[in-house]
Amino acid sequence: MSALQILNLAQNNLSGSIPPSLGKRFSMSNNKIEGFIPASLANASKLQWISLNNNKLVGTVPSLGSLSNLYILVLGNNYLESKDWAFLKSLSNCTRLQIVAMGGN
């Protein structure tokens, strides 16, 4: 799947965790994905779009500042938390970032 551009698995009633191969545009919105957002997500340097809203993700969001191509980040309506939301500071390195949606956490 090295040429994968878009992986859209939204609204499928999927459960489990986030897969390692993501493509450039990755959506698993409106499923039953559980657990933490893996820190290894920051290694997917080609990611432009991450949409994981309306799942059952918990914990803190890892630093995503290395994703220089990221322009959309949608993580709303999960169970994410942070005492200082430090990952937001890391997003200042994402110079193409246009949308961050975190409502409902």
From TrEMBL:
<dbReference type="InterPro" id="IPR051809">
    <property type="entry name" value="Plant_receptor-like_S/T_kinase"/>
</dbReference>
<dbReference type="GO" id="GO:0016020">
    <property type="term" value="C:membrane"/>
</dbReference>
<dbReference type="InterPro" id="IPR032675">
    <property type="entry name" value="LRR_dom_sf"/>
</dbReference>
<keyword id="KW-0677">Repeat</keyword>
<keyword id="KW-1133">Transmembrane helix</keyword>
<keyword id="KW-0433">Leucine-rich repeat</keyword>
<dbReference type="Pfam" id="PF00560">
    <property type="entry name" value="LRR_1"/>
</dbReference>
<keyword id="KW-0812">Transmembrane</keyword>
<keyword id="KW-0472">Membrane</keyword>
<dbReference type="InterPro" id="IPR001611">
    <property type="entry name" value="Leu-rich_rpt"/>
</dbReference>
<protein>
    <submittedName>
        <fullName>Uncharacterized protein</fullName>
    </submittedName>
</protein>
